[in-house]
Structures are given as C-alpha cells and as structure tokens.
DNA sequence: CCCATTACTTATCATTTGATAACAAAACTA
DNA sequence: TAGTTTTGTTATCAAATGATAAGTAATGGG
C-alpha cells in the first residue's frame, strides 16, 4: 500500500467533506448568532452537558473568549449554566428550551438536504456508505 | 436501511473529520499569513491555475474580499497573476516560487502527522481505508 | 492554615473577516 | 456602436474573532 498516495487521497477527501458540509449547513443558522456561536451550540447539542473548558479545548477557543461567547448565548436565552454541586468551580452547560428549538430546526434543515443528497442511492449504495463510514470512523478519524 | 440513523452517523463522522483535520493542520501555517489566506493558498495549490472568481465561489468569499486577500498574498510574493491572453478580464493565479516552498513545507508537515496517525494500521486496514475513501468520495461527498 | 492550582470571568485591544457601494475595463450583443 | 454583462478592483465600515493581562472563587496538598 502506497502511503503517499493514500495521503493524497485523504487530502482531496477531506476537502470534499468540508465542501459538502458547507453546502448542507449553509444558511441553516439564525442570523441572531455568529458562526462561532453556532459551532458552540452544535458542540453542546452533540455532547451536552459540557463545561466551558470542554468547549475551549474542543473548539479551540481560549477560555476568555469561550466565556464571552457563552455569556452572549446566555443573554440570548439559548443556553443554561448549572454549577456542579461537588466542585463549585465547574459549570455544566446545556441548551435551554429556546436553544433546543433553534438547533432542532437547524438540524432538521441539514437532514433534509442530506436525505436529498442520498435520495438516488440504491439500497446497496447506502449499505456501502454505512460500512465505509464505520471503517473510517474507527480506523482513521478516531 | 434507516436513513435517519445514517444521517446521525454522518453528523458524528463529519465532526470527527473536522476535528482530525484540525489536529493535523494546526500550526502548519506560517505566522505571516492569516487563516483565510492559508485556505486560499491551499486551494490554489490543489487546483491551480485558478481565477479570482473560482476562489470566490469555492471558498465562499465575496469578490471584493477575494481581491483584497489576493493582493496581500501578491505583496507577500506568494502568488503570481497572469492575465488570460484570450479574455483579458480574466486572471490566472498560481503559486510563486516562495508560495510553493511555503506550501510544500506545510503539506510535508501535515503528511508527517498523517503517516504518524496510520503507522499502526495493518496492510488490511490500509486497504479498507483506501476502499472506504473511494466509496464515500464517489457516493456521498461527490 | 497557607500556598499552589484549577475553573472561570472581566476588561481591553488589535487584527481579521464580512458586507456594501462605487468604479473600471474588457467582452459580448443587438 | 451603444448598451449590457462579466471580471475584477478600490475604498470604507462594522462586526467577529483572537490574544493578553489581571482578577475571583473554589479546591487540594502539604
């Protein structure tokens, strides 16, 4: 197996993933939040409950800036903070009711476009895709 | 095949791809250029020669902003512009010698990290990965 | 109890990025 | 050739983002 060729394939693959992701997610976010805020909400949606430190680490945003953006999201009533009862320095962040509604709508929109994209795939294609996602998830993008 | 489940798998997959891509590419770019400028150079590297319009479309940057960033890259001697002889409105953008050196170094660094990541994969694993990349590239991220 | 560490906040500033209006030059079109 | 479209530029402004310094409060280890 030529690892150099595999690298090149990986480069164009990730480029395609980014491009398609952009296509499926463009204009799904409300105008009332910024792109970075949307990313934070998306991360919370998938991983909640999370701490500000988690967000800082995983979204690669400094703690001061994370704190600022969370404050803004809080002021917009999209998230809720709960202090850990064990360690009162820690905060657990969750989507608020409004936040959940906003993200449900956004993800439904993305899902619609996704289903549209695979509408012409045969049963076998879908199974191939499913297997391929598993393979890459476990062996490359772990 | 449950398409809803496939969508969820797709969401976590793309999240992983973005995360791993970030890991492999972090700190590879010179401090003398901004993230957006790096993306433009990367796009030029893969697709050259390209026109400003191509960059604007594919990188989702407005023409005025594309023009501004290209001007900055030009001032840093990282790219060269050549006017089309047939249609003199068009410009073809290429990496300059310096630009090529910069991107070669950056990509070599990314490749090093990539090889590191797959160093423990068996021959069969690599073949699985290779096939999976092909499947997804043709059937999902086309 | 004291000191170091952790988790998070506040304030401030510079830079980057995005958006818009107005323009110029070349090419196409009727 | 006059008007329109395409391709790209310049200028300007506001907003988003990133970086840093300084601070608070809770925890944990001697």
TrEMBL record, chains A, B:
UniProt keyword annotations, A-Z: DNA-binding
Keyword Amino-acid biosynthesis: no
InterPro entries assigned: ArsR-like_HTH (IPR011991), HTH_MarR-typ (IPR000835), MarR/SlyA-like (IPR039422), WH-like_DNA-bd_sf (IPR036388), WH_DNA-bd_sf (IPR036390)
Pfam (any one): MarR_2
Domain HTH marR-type positions: 1-138
Protein name (database record): MarR family transcriptional regulator
Organism encoding this protein: Viridibacillus soli
